[in-house]
Amino acid sequence: MPASTRNGPVYFTNHGELFAVAANGTKLRRITRSAAEETDPSASPDGAELAFRTGNDEIFRIGVDGKNRVNLTRSGAHDFAPAWGPSGRIAFASSRSGTSVIWTMDRRGRRLHEVSSADGEYPAWSRDGKWIAFSRPSGATYDLWVIRSDGSGLKQLTDTIVVWEGLPSWSPDNRTIVFSRGDPNGGLGGRKLWTIDRRGGRVNRLTSGVGHDDFAPSWSPDGTSIVFSRNDRLFVVRRDGTHLRSLHVSGTFPDWSARPKTSAAE
């Protein structure tokens, strides 16, 4: 099957550094070389830059060629989980207001805006920029919530007492959210990928298998597939759960970028 003209590289973390790999597992390339741990990569809408978190919980951006590294946050708070939205604004989780809540900023780290005072982390923009999905603490675990990017319309999507749910990613048609969900049997079966309609309702299991820990899914720009980390290795699966394949690369926190306008990330 020919590669989609919309799908670009997959960016991910491996041993505290950022890497890129083509969606067929070729063209593996290291982006950062730093003594600090770097993770949570998120590609800009044009595929030219990455936002990411450093080990001291600050957010940086860098060109996908590894150049022009810029520190975006210097708050002294815990800033993490950047997510680049379609308008060019970056959502992220920050403890700067006391507890971890969702904020947004521009690509220069300016025009900061607290989206809501509701606790939350690991935000994900809908592809039309109207909504942000995130995980929110609920007792001893986390559930999925959504909120409009202007701070209105806060809504809980899942309500599970003992199961952790988080790391959401939106389908390009803005209708479906894929996320990682813990095992109700106390973790013996590992986390799995599930999907849910953006309005809530029934959840659908996407992956299975005892001992497989499926984590941090990211939807492909063309909407056909999802990349994720399974036991710290990268895999791709079709949106219906079929055609599982390994990229034969170790890594976690993948982000599937749109095809860049330059050749730097090829």
Indicate the topology.
Elements: E1 7-14, E2 17-21, E3 29-30, E4 38-43, E5 49-54, E6 59-63, E7 70-71, E8 79-84, E9 90-94, E10 101-105, E11 113-119, E12 121-125, E13 131-138, E14 141-148, E15 155-156, E16 165-170, E17 176-181, E18 192-197, E19 203-205, E20 214-219, E21 225-230, E22 233-238, E23 245-250, E24 252-258
Antiparallel strand pairs: 1-2, 1-24, 2-3, 4-5, 5-6, 6-7, 8-9, 9-10, 10-11, 12-13, 13-14, 14-15, 16-17, 17-18, 18-19, 20-21, 21-22, 22-23
Written overview of the protein:
The chain is mainly β and 266 residues long. The protein has a single domain, classed as 6 Propeller (Neuraminidase). The chain contains no helices and 24 strands. It has a four-stranded antiparallel beta sheet with strand order 3-2-1-24, with no helix packed on it. Strand 9 and strand 10 form a beta hairpin.
List keywords for this structure.
four-stranded antiparallel sheet; mainly beta; 24 strands; Neuraminidase; single chain; 266 residues
Question: Quick one: biggest sheet?
Answer: 4 strands, antiparallel
Order of SSEs, N→C? EEEEEEEEEEEEEEEEEEEEEEEE
CATH-defined architecture: 6 Propeller
Our count of domains comes out at 1
Number of DSSP strand runs: 24
**What's the tally of helices?**
0
By CATH's scheme, which homologous superfamily applies?
TolB, C-terminal domain
Q: How does the overall form come out from the CA principal axes?
A: globular
Give the radius of gyration.
17 Å
Spatial arrangement of strands, main beta sheet = 3-2-1-24
**Strand percent estimate:** over 45%
Helix percent reads: under 10%
Q: Per CATH, what is the topology?
A: Neuraminidase
The assigned structural class equals mainly beta
Q: Distance between termini? A: 19 Å
Residue runs with pLDDT of under 50 for 5 or more positions:
none
Report mean pLDDT, rounded to a whole number.
Answer: 92
The CATH class turns out to be Mainly Beta
